[in-house]
Write a structure and sequence with these properties.
Layout lengths: L6 E5 L17 E5 L3 H13 L3 E5 L13 H11 L3 E8 L6 H18 L3 E6 L2 H11 L4 E3 L9 H6 L2 E5 L9 H9 L5 E3 L5 H9 L1 H4 L6 H7 L5 H4 L6 H7 L4 H13 L3 H16 L10
Parallel strand pairs: 1-2, 2-3, 3-4, 4-5, 5-6, 6-7, 7-8
Helix pairs in contact: 1-2, 9-12, 12-13
Length: 293
């Protein structure tokens, strides 16, 4: 059976030291998200060096107070230098960078995305109501809620506005019942997966692989997805975010998607193929699929 293509909806490999292996793996695509003006050039350079990588440029809410006065002009210039998305941008109620300033920066980037007709990769923490309100007002077009952590009840409203929903390794945690409920609520044609290290990184800091390999997370399916590379190796004490990025060359996304498939009661390969098709639809006119196959 041929290997499915993998679409990695979100990562920051520009932050890793040493050789970077794109999490999209075999014949796949990865959306590499910038966060501030000081990493946009590196994002562009990595995309130019690896055809699997599609760049995203944006000012993340964590870093809005570090950007210079002409950051929005710089952002537009980068977006025009390559087929690209706007991201990572959004709102973060847990970060003290000023709610009003966050909203101003967020709104200005949504307007830019709409004008340039670019897909948007969104970050949202503890600001879901405000996020929904602004999206309704600005209607940027295609957008993705990365590492979705909002209520399952809000998925219908976001979906009606054109949202895609990306899930990361946190869905492997059997204690995250509400997150798994959200996963099951997302319309299948809006579902994406990402390898931004989160739960994997936590596992490497003392939580241990055993917790990831509960009865709800079938080790045999992980082993099959990883082609014999055991989850223990992927989630060992050596599995810091950078090593996970390297390990994800054809392995990280299969492990994650296999876990999601177990939760959803669907074949892992079917889910991988579905998320690939969804990812290409999310990118829309900015991607020529044939050039990546």
């Amino acid at each position: 059976m041929p290997h499915p293509k993998y679409f990695d909806a979100h990562n920051h490999i520009q932050n890793y030291s040493g050789p970077c292996e794109a999490g999209a793996g075999r014949a796949g695509l990865i959306l590499l998200n910038g966060t501030a003006p000081d990493d946009w050039q590196k994002v562009l350079d990595l995309a130019a060096a690896d055809e699997r990588i599609w760049p995203c440029f944006g000012l993340h809410p964590w870093f809005i107070n570090k950007a210079g006065p002409r950051w929005l002009e710089e952002l537009e210039l980068f977006l025009k230098r390559a087929p690209s998305c706007v991201g990572e941008i959004g709102l973060d109620g847990a970060k003290n960078t000023g709610a009003k300033r966050q909203e101003e920066v967020f709104t200005s980037q949504l307007k830019l995305a709409a004008r340039l007709r670019r897909p948007v990769c969104l970050h949202c923490v503890k600001a879901w109501g405000k996020m929904l309100k602004i999206i309704k007002e600005e209607l940027p077009g295609t957008f993705m809620l990365h590492s979705y952590g909002g209520p399952a009840e809000m998925i219908k409203e976001f979906s009606a506005l054109g949202a895609y929903f990306s899930f990361g390794s946190a869905i492997m945690d059997p204690k995250r019942g509400k997150l798994r409920e959200a996963l099951l609520t997302v319309p299948p044609d809006r579902l994406l997966f990402e390898t931004e290290p989160s739960y994997f990184a936590k596992a490497s800091k003392g939580r241990g692989p055993a917790k990831l390999l509960s009865s709800e997370a079938n080790p045999s399916s992980f082993a099959k997805a990883s082609e014999g590379r055991s989850p223990a190796k992927l989630l060992s004490s050596e599995a810091d975010p950078s090593s996970f990025a390297k390990a994800s060359e054809g392995h990280g996304l299969p492990v994650l998607i296999s876990a999601a498939a177990d939760v959803m009661g669907r074949p892992a390969q079917e889910l991988a193929e579905l998320s690939w098709v969804n990812g290409i639809k999310f990118l829309g006119d900015i991607v020529d699929v044939n050039s990546k196959e």
